[in-house]
Amino acid sequence: MLARANIRPIPRRGLSREESAMYLGVSPSKFDELRKDGRIGPPRLIDGRKVWDIYALDQCFEAFPVDGGEPDDDWKSAV
């Protein structure tokens, strides 16, 4: 019998640096740049291992500007 994790991935809240970069859609070096200038907050520590909370990453992502103005105006360009 297959383990449940082999059938369906287990969602995780804490991500490594590389996984966090992938989650946001940027390279690890861009992630480091965003960390350095304060646009992404510090990691949590789990026994010395650094992990980023996906909820905090979501907040950082929401703070990035939207290209072309307000998101509510996007529908007007299709009309």
How would you sum up this structure, described in words?
This protein is of the alpha+beta class and 79 residues long. It has a domain at 11-63. It is built from 5 helices and 3 strands, in the order αβααββαα. The chain has helices spanning 4-7, 17-24, 28-36, 54-63, 74-77, and strands at residues 14-15, 44-46, 49-53. Strands 1-3-2 form a 3-stranded antiparallel β-sheet. It is globular and about 45 Å long. The relative contact order is 0.15.
What attributes characterize this protein structure?
79 residues, 3-stranded antiparallel beta sheet, alpha+beta
Compact description:
With 79 residues, the protein is α+β, with helices and mostly antiparallel strands.
